[in-house]
């Protein structure tokens, strides 16, 4: 086995990278049942919200799979990386709370801080070792989707009444900047962070918008709710300048932005170019006409690698495989540098 590319990979975010932290929480946002995980090791549903590996699993960097922090008591994982991500969680503390308990980004950072204070301090005998470990480690943050899906676009939240779309985007970025400051203060220097994907195209949004009460017919390819996508684009357009300003004022910090919006939109509207047959309908049978999570023990489609969506919210493993191949070495998805360059810097 070759040496890992980085000493550790620490994962933060939402259900796109959650690998089991929500399993024991009182929440509707759980994926620890079949058919989730049918393509993963041993075909066991461990809590990932697709058929197999997530982007965090593919990223790897030669480290062991970062296990979910919840329920883990082996301090050795503190050295190679934990996964703190929580389905339904977001940048704002109230995001996702209508579904039950989830860990917000701030709560995930709290858990990372506990890891440093309670576990790393036991392993590293002096602060010098710790101060060398954290700056070289890679931090993956996949966040922001639920702040729209399970907050701003949910009529039962007040945010859409209090803020116009541009104001809400700025609110998110102001909070995110403070969260990145917390990570920096803890010793983090290398961060991979995402744009928000075109949420107007995911089945839970697009199917409800287009179908209304028309029943269970399949969606035509590439149909999206432009109003929702326009909201997300406001956030995405402001994010690069926030990260640039942060880097320029924080010595030694490096941020790689995953520009996933244009890639995902292109795949959804031109599936043939990427080897997908269906980019509008979920592979598994879901509650409420293809718009929610998979129905337990239902039989999924026989060719998930040809479906972009696994359920009403989440991409299949095949998308993450494509994304990782373009993120590590290529220049089309990551800016200002790719992941390989981030590791080596």
Automatic annotation (TrEMBL):
Protein name (Swiss-Prot/TrEMBL): Uncharacterized protein
Ubl conjugation found in the keyword field: no
Family listed: Belongs to the 'GDSL' lipolytic enzyme family.
Source species of the chain: Saponaria officinalis (Common soapwort)
Main location: secreted
One GO cellular component term noted in the UniProt record for this chain: extracellular region
Alphabetized UniProt keyword annotations: Hydrolase, Lipid degradation, Lipid metabolism, Secreted, Signal
InterPro entries: GDSL, GDSL_esterase/lipase, SGNH_hydro_sf, SGNH_plant_lipase-like
Subcellular location: Secreted
Superkingdom of origin organism: Eukaryota
Keyword Hydrolase: yes
Biological processes annotated in GO: lipid catabolic process
GO molecular function: hydrolase activity, acting on ester bonds
PANTHER family reported in the protein's UniProt record: GDSL ESTERASE_LIPASE 7-LIKE, GDSL-LIKE LIPASE/ACYLHYDROLASE-RELATED
Lineage, highest ranks first: Eukaryota, Viridiplantae, Streptophyta, Embryophyta, Tracheophyta
């Amino acid at each position: 086995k070759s040496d890992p590319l980085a000493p550790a990979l620490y994962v933060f975010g939402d259900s796109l990278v959650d690998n089991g932290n929500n399993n024991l929480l009182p929440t509707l946002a759980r994926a620890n049942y079949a058919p989730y995980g049918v393509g993963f090791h041993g075909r066991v549903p461990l809590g990932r919200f697709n058929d197999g590996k997530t982007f965090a699993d593919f990223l790897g960097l030669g480290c062991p799979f970062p296990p979910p922090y919840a329920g883990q008591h082996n301090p050795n994982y503190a050295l190679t990386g934990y996964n703190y991500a929580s389905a339904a969680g977001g940048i704002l503390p109230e995001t996702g709370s209508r579904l039950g308990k989830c860990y917000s980004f701030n709560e995930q950072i709290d858990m990372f801080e506990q890891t440093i204070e309670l576990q790393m301090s036991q392993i590293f005998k002096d602060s010098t070792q710790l101060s060398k470990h954290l700056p070289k480690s890679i931090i993956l943050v996949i966040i922001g989707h639920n702040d729209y899906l399970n907050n701003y676009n949910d009529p039962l939240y007040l945010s859409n009444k209090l803020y116009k779309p541009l104001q809400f985007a700025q609110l998110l970025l102001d909070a995110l900047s403070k969260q990145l400051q917390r990570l920096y203060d803890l010793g983090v220097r290398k961060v991979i962070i995402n744009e928000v994907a075109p949420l107007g195209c995911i089945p839970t949004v697009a199917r409800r918008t287009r179908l209304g009460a028309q029943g269970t017919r399949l969606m035509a390819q590439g149909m999206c709710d432009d109003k929702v996508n326009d909201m997300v684009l406001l956030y995405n357009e402001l994010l690069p300048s926030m990260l640039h300003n942060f880097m320029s004022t924080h010595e030694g910090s490096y941020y790689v932005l995953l520009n996933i919006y244009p890639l995902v939109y292109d795949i959804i509207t031109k599936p043939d170019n990427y080897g997908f047959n269906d980019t509008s309908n979920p592979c598994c049978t879901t509650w409420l006409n293809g718009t929610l999570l998979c129905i337990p023990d239902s039989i999924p489609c026989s060719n998930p690698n040809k479906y972009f969506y696994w359920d009403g919210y989440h991409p299949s493993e095949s998308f993450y495989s494509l994304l990782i191949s373009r993120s590590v070495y290529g220049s089309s998805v990551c800016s200002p540098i790719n992941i390989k360059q981030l590791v080596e810097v």
